[in-house]
């Protein structure tokens, strides 16, 4: 596995990986209308470009060297809050789950904290998403809950999770 920093030319690939992942991960959790709405809002070319232009926001593509294929991506933001990196996005295509790519990407992110002054990683995970168990297995803990109106009559009903760097 190799993580490759995403560039502007990779936006269509990120959009494709997001759609493939979301269509699997969120079926039965949120409606198809909400999936489409969130993908259009969060993964528009304009939105991803804005992230790529920000010095604190980073996208990396997860590349499987054995199969010469892209398996997913990770998007995070250093300095989201004081001392905190926000893991905004980590998505894998369905056929790559359970192969260590998610753990490898989180390990990569934990190492990237040394490039910032951050000592904590936070993320949101839908309350019905099985990914919560994965995050718990990687030493993340629930510290709060949140229901967020995202527009168009949709809400995100999430657990807020954190990982703390210990000296």
Give an overview of the whole structure.
The chain is globular, with a radius of gyration of 15 Å. It starts with a strand and ends with a strand. The chain has one domain (2-124): Gcn5-related N-acetyltransferase (GNAT) (Aminopeptidase, 3-Layer(aba) Sandwich), CATH 3.40.630. Helix content is 32%, strand content 38%. It is built from 5 helices and 7 strands; from the N terminus they run βαααβββαβαββ. A 7-stranded mixed sheet has the order 1-2-3-4-5-7-6, with helices on both faces. The protein is an alpha+beta fold. β2 and β3 form a beta hairpin.
Assign an overall shape. globular
Find the CATH superfamily: Gcn5-related N-acetyltransferase (GNAT)
CATH fold-type name: Aminopeptidase
Largest beta-sheet characterization: 7 strands, mixed
Mean of residue pLDDT values:
95
The first-level CATH class is given as Alpha Beta
End-to-end Cα distance: 28 Å
Task: Supply the number of helical segments.
Answer: 5
> Which radius of gyration do the C-alpha atoms yield?
15 Å
Find the structural class using helix and strand composition.
Answer: alpha+beta
Summed up:
The protein is α+β, with helices and mostly antiparallel strands. It has helices spanning 11-25, 32-42, 45-53, 101-112, 131-137; strands at 2-5, 57-64, 69-81, 84-92, 120-126, 141-151, 154-164.
Provide the fold topology.
Blueprint: E1 2-5, H1 11-25, H2 32-42, H3 45-53, E2 57-64, E3 69-81, E4 84-92, H4 101-112, E5 120-126, H5 131-137, E6 141-151, E7 154-164
Parallel strand pairs: 4-5
Antiparallel strand pairs: 1-2, 2-3, 3-4, 5-7, 6-7
């Amino acid at each position: 596995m190799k993580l490759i920093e995403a560039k502007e030319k990779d936006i269509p690939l990120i959009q494709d990986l997001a759609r493939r992942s979301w269509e699997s991960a969120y079926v039965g959790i949120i409606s198809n209308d909400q999936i489409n709405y969130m993908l259009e809002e969060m993964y528009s070319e304009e939105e991803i470009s804005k992230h790529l232009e920000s010095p604190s926001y980073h996208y990396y593509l997860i590349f499987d060297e054995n199969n010469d294929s892209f398996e997913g991506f990770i998007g995070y933001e250093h300095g989201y809050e004081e001392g905190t990196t926000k893991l905004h996005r980590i998505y894998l295509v369905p056929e790559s789950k359970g192969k260590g790519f998610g753990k490898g990407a989180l390990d990569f992110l934990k190492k990237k904290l040394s490039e910032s002054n951050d000592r904590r990683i936070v993320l949101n995970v839908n309350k019905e998403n099985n990914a919560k168990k994965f995050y718990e297995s990687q030493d993340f803990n629930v510290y709060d809950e949140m229901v967020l109106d995202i527009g168009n009559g949709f809400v995100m009903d999430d657990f807020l999770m954190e990982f703390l760097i210990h000296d």
